[in-house]
Amino acid sequence: MDTLTRMRAFIDVVEAEGFSAAARKIGRSKALLSKYVRELEDELGALLLNRTTRQFSLTEAGHTYYRRATEIIREVDSLADDVRESSGDVRGRIKLSAPRTFADAPIGQCLIDFAKAHPDIVLDIHLDDRFVDLVEEGFDLAIRISRLESSSLIARRLAPFSVRVCGSPELIEKHGRPARPQDLAGMPCIIDTNGRWLSNWPFLGENGETITVSVSGQMEVNSPLATRAAALAGLGFAILPDFIAAADIEGGRLVPLLDDHILPGGGIFAVYPHRRYLPAKVRVLVDFLAQWFKARDQG
After folding, report:
1. What integer pLDDT is reported at residue 146 of this predicted model?
2. Which residues contact residue 248 at a Cβ distance below 8 angstroms, ignoring those fewer than 6 apart?
3. Which residues fall within 8 angstroms of residue 293, CB to CB, at 6 or more apart?
4. Dihedral (CA of 278, 283, 289, 292) sign
């Protein structure tokens, strides 16, 4: 049994957080995976995993080995990808992180369209609204919706992103239309606690400065989609991502407000770690996403 096979088994177990889960995920027996990891530990002369019937954790040596092993396996896979790409055969698994909102919104269709176009590539999609550590957690790529800060990562901008302040026609008829951001302080608002602003909403002031308005309302929820549903029901004014609000605004179910006071938006980015070689399968995905959003924008 070669070291790379044992190494892959160890990585599978760590990323699945257990032998049973890894066995189900990759279609191998728990006993075989346990054998591979035990042989790897014997080969290294070090304990990599703490195992009990109820707990699973990495030892210090395990953390170190996992970080380096994932880098090595990526390089090996990248080399294989490059050879396959030269023959027009790109395949493999891509571990992808994306916000839940992205996948649930209409733009999440881009991932489905990619999977249909590339049946030999497995998309291992992890939906999480936190910013994962791509290197530490072994991700090939992440989709991020934000103003991208400087980092050690490489980012490709896929599309612009902004937010809209919205309210239902019934809500506006009942409470009036806010003429300036400060008016929202005395009106019912829906607070998306998944966002970074919480109840302190930022706007552009009359002179172009950034101002903050403290808002409150009957509902606080950690989901833009639930916030949208509450706004459609007339429970309050809401800040929504433009890709979530667009269809309801176009259909007249929500009314956009205070557009002149919205702060400049960020973008939707494909983010990946610095590497000497970007795996062909990841490059194919990033190129596909860029073209998908370009076509959508032009359409």
Report:
1. 78
2. 166, 228, 232, 254
3. 107, 110, 158, 159, 268
4. positive
Secondary structure class of 249 (helix, strand, coil): helix
Q: Is the pLDDT of residue 53 over 70?
A: no
Is residue 213 very low, low, confident or very high in pLDDT (cuts 50, 70, 90)? very high
Give every CB contact of residue 51 below 8 A, 6+ residues apart in sequence.
none
CA–CA separation, 299 and 283 (whole Å): 24
Please state the rounded mean pLDDT for residues 184-204.
93
Give residues with Cβ within 8 angstroms of 187, minimum separation 6. Answer: 175, 176, 178, 215, 236, 237
* CA angle at 37 for the pair 31 and 139, rounded to the nearest 5°: 110
Residue 41 has a CB neighbour count (10 Å cut-off) of 19
pTM above 0.70, yes or no: no
